[in-house]
Amino acid sequence: DVKVTQSSRYLVKRTGEKVFLECVQDMDHENMFWYRQDPGLGLRLIYFSYDVKMKEKGDIPEGYSVSREKKERFSLILESASTNQTSMYLCASRGGQGFYEQYFGPGTRLTVT
Amino acid sequence: AQRVTQPEKLLSVFKGAPVELKCNYSYSGSPELFWYVQYSRQRLQLLLRHISRESIKGFTADLNKGETSFHLKKPFAQEEDSAMYYCALSGQGAQKLVFGQGTRLTINP
Q1: Are B96 and A90 inside 8 Å of each other by CB?
Q2: Which residues of A touch B50 (CB under 8 A)?
Q3: φ, ψ of residue B14 in degrees (nearest 5)
Q4: A101 touches chain B (CB under 8 A)
Q5: How many C-alpha atoms does B68 have within 13 Å on its Cβ side?
Q6: In this structure, are residues A16 and A81 in contact, taking their beta carbons and an 8 Å threshold?
Q7: Ordered DSSP codes for A36-88
Q8: From B9, B32, B98, residue closest to A100, measured CB to CB
Q9: In chain B, what residues touch A58 (CB-CB under 8 Å)?
Q10: Which residues of B fall within a CB distance of 8 Å from A102?
Q11: Which of A77, A109, B59, B104 has the most CB within a 10 Å radius?
Q12: pLDDT tens for residues A52-102?
């Protein structure tokens, strides 16, 4: 079974803080993704990575950065958290060419006060 | 540009009634379409993929290229079908998915 884990289920941070969200997958997947999940807006892609040290911007990358130093780990960084980044953050992974299913983590609910 | 639209944010039906969750897409090439589901307190997971043409948990979805739709259907709803449903599209050779806004389905007893 594919397992995607996220470092925290709930996180509360103050405006201006630097925030790290960690995601780890155990299936040697090439592709990893970070999404925001907001009611009425669905899932929106923030960044994705198709290989170690490789990244591409998704639809809403502003205010975020990512890091992928090892194949199994993909970090989302909020350099200076703002209240409009309060959201549910989902990480996902997927195998390489020919694989289509994305496997999701449990999510991190981030509140920025 | 790729876009997925789910026109209903909320859908409520009675147990045993038919269910149809609507999904329309915009894509100029040949898309791959998916339905993902999130049950209460569970992680998002793949329900079905149009290419496989399978019926999963009694649900089916047919890709209609003429109407650019991929509606999810089940003839007889069950209470355990209550969940959040997302339609998603992947373009040819694309590595990423574009998701719709989601539909929260509630099955009333």
Answers
A1: no
A2: none
A3: -90, 150
A4: yes
A5: 14
A6: yes
A7: EEETTTEEEEEEEEEETTEEEE-S--TTEEEEEEETTEEEEEESS--GGG-EE
A8: B32
A9: 96
A10: 46, 97
A11: B59
A12: 989 999 999 999 999 999 999 999 999 999 999 999 999 999 987 777 889
CB pair distance less than 8 Å for A102 and B46: yes
Check pLDDT > 70 for residue A2: no
Cα B41 to Cα A44: distance, rounded to the nearest angstrom: 20
- Classify residue B59 by its DSSP letter: B
B101 with A41: Cβ contact below 8 A: yes
Q: What pLDDT score does B31 carry? A: 87
A48 to chain B, any CB pair closer than 8 A? The answer is yes
pLDDT along chain B (109 residues), means of 10: 93 97 92 94 92 84 92 96 96 83 96
* B9/chain A closest Cα distance in angstroms: 7
pLDDT of residue A69: 95
Q: For B61-94, b where at least 16 C-beta lie within 10 A, e where not — what string?
A: bebeeeebbbbbebeebeeebbbbbbbbbbbeee
Task: Give the β-pairing of A108-112 and A10-13.
Answer: parallel
The sign of the torsion formed by the CA atoms of B76, B80, A94, A75 equals positive
pLDDT for the residue numbered B2: 87
